[in-house]
Amino acid sequence: MRVIFTPLAERHIDALHATITEHSNEDRADGYVRRIVGFCQRLATFPNRGTQRDDILPGLRVTGFERRVTIAFMVTADAVLIEGIFYGGRDFAAILRGEAEV
């Protein structure tokens, strides 16, 4: 099964990397983003984990990463679609519904 990052998820990763670099350093940002991406890649092995959130979007699942990140994803017949990477308690439901700014 493939893992595909949507453009929204890629923007989230880029913004998180930039924020960490600004407040710490690029090496720390690289390491943190690498761990997030690795975690997402491992969803290919057991994709139906996390909590189903059909109340937000049909087929949406969410799972946590290192107590600070929420990863929103969908599972199709042949891929895991990473819909968003939400850091620090962002209102992922409102963002995914289009009710809040990305």
Account of the protein in words:
The chain has 102 residues and is α+β, with helices and mostly antiparallel strands. It has a single domain (2-97), classed as YaeB-like fold (2-Layer Sandwich), CATH 3.30.2310.20. The chain has three helices and five strands, in the order βααββββα. It has helices at 7-23, 26-42, 92-97, and strands at residues 2-5, 51-52, 60-65, 69-75, 79-87. Strands 1-5-4-3-2 form a five-stranded mixed sheet. Helix 1 (7-23) packs antiparallel against helix 2 (26-42). The termini are far apart.
Major sheet summary line: 5 strands, mixed
According to DSSP, the number of beta strands is: 5
The SS-based structural class is alpha+beta
**So, the CATH homologous superfamily?**
RelE-like
Query: Could you tell me the mean pLDDT?
Result: 96
Q: Which strands sit side by side, in order, in the main sheet?
A: 1-5-4-3-2
Q: CATH topology, anyone?
A: YaeB-like fold
Helix content: 25-40%
Beta-strand fraction estimate: 25-35%
What sort of overall outline do the alpha carbons produce when their principal axes are compared?
globular
Over the alpha carbons, how many angstroms does the gyration radius reach? 13 Å
How many domain regions? Answer: 1
Number of H- or I-type helical stretches: 3
**What distance separates the N and C termini?**
28 Å
Taking pLDDT < 50 over at least 5 consecutive residues as the criterion, the unreliable ranges are none
Order of helices and strands: EHHEEEEH
